[in-house]
Specification:
- By secondary structure, the protein is an alpha+beta fold.
- It is about 40% helix and about 20% strand.
- The strands form 4 sheets. A 9-stranded mixed β-sheet has the order 2-6-7-10-1-11-12-13-14. Strands 5-4-15 form a 3-stranded antiparallel β-sheet, with no helix packed on it. Strands 3-16 form a two-stranded antiparallel sheet.
- A hairpin with a 5-residue loop joins strand 6 and strand 7.
- Helix 6 packs antiparallel against helix 7, helix 13 packs across helix 15 and helix 15 crosses helix 16.
- The structure holds adenosine-5'-diphosphate, magnesium ion and zinc ion (ZN).
Length: about 475
């Protein structure tokens, strides 16, 4: 694919983490028994009026401000009319011509093949508020083959739609954008970011154009993307499909397609569902939404440190390698965990290392998140201090860490109970060194003939003889002295 370049714009729906729905007081709890979180308002019964949830607006404004959008002092809810069995009113309350916020951006960083890093800002066209629809249930019921069911618990749950500019130029950039956007929303605590539960949903707009051309090609919108991985797969497939169509003399039709994750292909949606005229008009039951500037400014100053800034601080002030900084800053609970461990250790790099390799590896294997870590950040700090002050070797520390992960015990207690304190006592090490030298005359010969590499073998033997507890630095020094003869 060198003759064509892709142009990609993403539309992300994020469910806001409010306790109640956007226009009524029903709870938003996920997984409640079907049709228990409902009332006349979110069931669309006649004679009811929507009342806007202030917290939903606050969360939407937080997301807007954190992504550098301009919040409009006056925005309008609008009716988006269409028929579907999960939409009881026959219209969705959304925003159209006057959205809540416009013109922001999301910074991304991409790893370069050579090891460097490329930075880019993906523009945002708009962020608007809307209500979610209900959910059709086609599976898992005794008569699923012949009937569909509707669960209205989700009807009226508050969403924001975040529409990116067509600034995304590859599947990798799409992935980086989604990852950063999710991270920002979760940091702000306005969305739980859970894709499996539908808290974050994404549609991808994709077109291709001859490399270097100024004009955009015809775009296709892909729906049904339920994981970041599937977003990437669908975009990859679609770029190839469109490029091939143009190469072979055909052209791309503007349409909506669905991604089939099992087969890894996109397919046109039936045209009846495609030909949609929403007949938008301003929602007569809600007055214009007026957002006052002092409130926006109050929200702006209350924002937490965001992932990009935190990553910057981890790499800069704390001196972490860019990769570790990016990994640890992306998730707020993980970043908090790291910072606490780094403080306790007095050694940020070591804390980053232990967490991103040893701890995360074990947590993944046990299918646990950082919140369920059996090892506390302060204990990681204590372990690193034991290494740094020479009490235990790095090798022994791994054994200690295994036990910390198993039992949640403190490293100091484990080291004391199992007698793992590093032997720095020269006498004991000297005895072991002399024993190893006496027992291996031919290796001594090899070393003395100038094969310095044999030193490593001797270090290994002495470590073995001391149960791995000898200080490697002391072993090295004494070995060299004694082998010199
Ligand atoms: P609509 O109102 O029909 O959804 P928008 O102009 O709002 O159209 O664009 C929707 C999305 O499509 C945005 O994310 C935008 O960046 C993207 N987009 C627009 N034109 C193109 C194009 N030629 N190729 C790829 N994406 C595009
Ligand atoms: Mg759109
Ligand atoms: Zn309700």
């Amino acid at each position: 694919m060198t003759d064509f370049e892709p142009v990609i714009g993403l539309e992300v729906h994020a469910q806001l983490r409010t306790a109640t729905k956007i226009f009524c007081g029903c709870p938003t709890t996920f997984g409640a028994p079907p049709n228990t979180n409902v009332c006349p308002v979110c069931l669309g019964l006649p004679g009811v009026l929507p009342v806007l949830n202030r917290t939903a607006v606050e969360y939407a404004v937080k997301a807007a401000v954190a992504t550098g959008c301009r919040v409009n002092p006056r925005s309008l809810f609008a009716r988006k009319n269409y028929f579907y069995p999960d939409l009881p009113k026959g219209y969705q309350i959304s925003m159209y011509e006057q959205p809540l916020a416009e013109k922001g951006s999301v910074p991304i960083e991409l790893e370069e093949p050579g090891g460097g890093e490329r930075r880019k800002a993906i523009g945002l066209i708009r962020i608007h508020m809307e209500e979610d629809a209900g959910k059709l249930v086609h599976e898992g019921m005794p008569d699923s083959g012949t009937r569909s069911y509707v669960d209205f618990n989700r009807s009226g749950v508050p969403l924001i739609e975040i529409v990116s500019a067509p600034d995304i130029s590859s599947p990798e950039e799409a992935h980086a954008y989604l990852t950063r956007l999710r991270s920002i929303l979760v940091y702000l605590e306005v969305c739980d970011g859970n894709m499996e539960e539908g808290s974050l949903r994404c549609d991808a707009n994709v077109s291709v154009r001859p490399r270097g051309a100024a004009a955009f090609g015809t775009r296709v919108e892909i729906k049904n993307l339920n994981s970041f991985r599937n977003v990437v797969r669908a975009i990859e497939y679609e770029i190839e499909r469109q490029a091939e169509a143009v190469r072979s003399g055909g052209k791309v039709v503007q349409e909506t397609r669905l991604f089939d994750a099992d087969r890894g292909v996109t397919e046109p949606m039936r045209s009846k569902e495609e030909a949609m005229d929403y007949r938008y008009f301003p929602e007569p039951d809600l007055p214009p939404l007026l957002v006052e500037t002092p409130w926006v400014e109050k929200i702006r100053v209350s924002l937490p440190e965001l992932p990009a800034q935190r990553r910057e601080r981890f790499a800069g002030a704390l001196g972490l390698p860019p990769r570790d900084a990016a990994f640890l800053a992306a998730d707020r609970p993980l970043a908090d965990f790291f910072e606490e461990a780094a403080r306790a250790a007095g050694n940020p790099r070591a804390a980053a290392n232990w967490i991103s390799s040893e701890l995360i590896g074990r947590l993944n294997a046990a299918r646990r998140g950082i919140a369920a870590s059996p090892v506390r950040p302060s204990s990681i700090g204590a372990l690193i201090r034991l290494i740094d002050d020479g009490t235990i070797s790095g090798k022994i520390a791994k054994t200690v860490f295994d036990e910390m992960f198993e039992s949640g015990a403190e490293p100091g207690a484990i080291v004391a109970a199992r007698g793992l304190v590093q032997i720095s006592d020269e006498g004991a090490i000297l005895a072991a060194v002399d024993r190893v030298i006496a027992e291996n005359p031919s290796q001594v010969e090899t070393y003395r003939k100038g094969k310095a590499a044999a030193l490593g073998w001797f270090v290994g033997q002495v470590m073995k003889a001391t149960g791995g507890k000898a200080s490697p630095a002391v072993v090295n020094r004494i070995l060299k002295e004694r082998l010199q003869g």
